[in-house]
Design goal:
Length: 75
């Protein structure tokens, strides 16, 4: 399902390296606690970054964010 109109940039505000590392950890099956620890950040930092991507990409939950990032080839 494509949530973007034709011609619109599918990666608004491309995630920074830390956010991409967090996404990769979650995509590999890590829990939020494990992903945060592996990237040396707090769970609240991970949560804020996932919320920002959900808003930017118009998605409803973290799993959708991870799937979308994988489809875009970001992780």
């Amino acid at each position: 399902m494509n949530r973007y109109s034709e011609g619109e940039n599918p990666v608004p505000d491309r995630p920074d390296d830390l956010t991409l590392r967090l996404l990769a950890q979650i995509a590999d099956g890590a829990t939020t606690a494990q992903a945060a620890a592996a990237c040396n950040v707090s769970e609240s930092t991970l949560t804020r970054r996932m919320q920002a991507l959900r808003r930017a990409w118009g998605l409803d939950n973290t799993m959708q964010v991870v799937v979308h990032a994988v489809r875009l080839g970001l992780v």
